[in-house]
Structure formats: C-alpha cells, structure tokens
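Appendix B. One record, verbatim.
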Amino acid sequence: MSEILLVGCGKMGGALVDGWLSKGRNPASITIIEPQLPSLAPLVSRGVQALASDQDLPGAFVPELILFAVKPQLMDYVVPPYARFKESVVYMSIAAGRTMAFFKKCLGEDASIVRVMPNTPAAIGRGISAGLASNNVRRDQLDLAASLMQTAGEFHWLTSERQIDAVTAVSGSGPAYVFLLAECLAEAAKSLGLPDNLAERLGRMTVTGSGEMLAQSQETAAILREHVTSPGGTTEAALKVLMADAGLQTLVKEAVGVAFQRSRELAGS
C-alpha cells in the first residue's frame, strides 16, 4: 500500500485521515508531521505514525504522496524541506491561494503537483472537492490523489487554476453561506415570537433536512423548490421577495463573485 505523508493535521487533515482509516487504509502506511503531537493521540492509538518535524523522518523513508494541509501563510517555510523527495513523490496541497507556480518555486520545476480545494463537510464524509494536476503527474499518481479525496466525499478533476478559484468561491466557502441561511431563518423565527431554542431548531433542521432531500433526490433543486411552492400560497409569497431583482439570487451571485476575486488576489493572479 502507498506510503502517505501528511504535513499538518488540523480539522481538515484529521478528517481525511479518519476517512482513510474508515475505508480500510493500513494505518502503518500513514505518517503525520504535526508539531502539536498530543492532539494526534486518538490517531496514534489507531496505528498511525506521528512525528513533530520532517527532521524526525527515518533516512530510508520514501513516501509516494505528500499532502500539505497547513494554513497558506505557513507554506513558505513548511514546504521547501520536502523538495528532497521530488524524484519519487507527488505533492498535493489543499491550501487556497497557493498556486502551481508557488509549489514549483519551492520544490523545483520538475516537481509533480496536485492542487485540491475541499470543503468542511469532508469531516462527515459528505464533502465535495476538485483538483488540478501539473502535466507531469502520472496516471497512478492521479488515481492515488483522487482515491484519497474520495474517502471524504465526491472528487472532480479541473483543467485550470481559474477553476480552482471558482470552486473555492462556491463550495470551499459555501458551507458558511448555508450556515448563514440557518442563522437567518432562526432570527426570523425569533422575530415572529417563537422561543429561542425552537427558533434555532427550526433554522437548523429546515436546512439540514432540505439538504438531505436534495442529496437523495434525482430532481434538480429548481424542481424540488417548485414542489414546495403552491400557487397563491405562503411559499410563493416569500419567494417573490427572495427571487426579486435584488433578492437572494443576485446576492449569492455577487457574494460568490467577491469570493472568487479574493481567491484570485490571494493567488497573485
């Protein structure tokens, strides 16, 4: 089984490792570099190897894939030491705003790179991620990268870094938009006189229940919306507000556009 080296193990890194183990990956094939070693105790108890620094790696250690799961602002000094593995490894990053050019600069022009943008529902196996590979990534390396991400949900290949920025704006940031909707529904319920606890549950369960219906249905979101909307009823009255020219559709498109532009700025595009 392929040797995987995970550099950084915060919430997303930990979610991925949990997914790998749940899908049957041999824990002995996973090594984690994480300065905060005590936080890895649950994973270590399951057989995963954990080290505080790349300097602690055995001299004969040769991974097949190195996944960088640290914050973008830490990449400048975290990534370069791993250039010593570039002859045999594919590098994968889940950091927003760090481009192929950045990794080529840190690791060498001939390094094999995969950039991936996941989202936080990966923590419960319901994520969706998309990735872009440099031209020199081999087919077996592509398959390995995809299989590792598929343990956390859906995975799709992209063809340009502009598409990575679009995915970042839609699904990478998207869970926050959905959580905000739940907040807004709860606040609206409170404004109508419902108790706080009930209002919070109404907002939460309406969003999660509707999301599960969407996940299980073969119908489009538009069709499901129409199924809830009776002519002349309460839902239609509300949708006239939400779907007005300056309503929810316009706001979401504007918000995603701003997030997309910010992603481009962070990438230096």
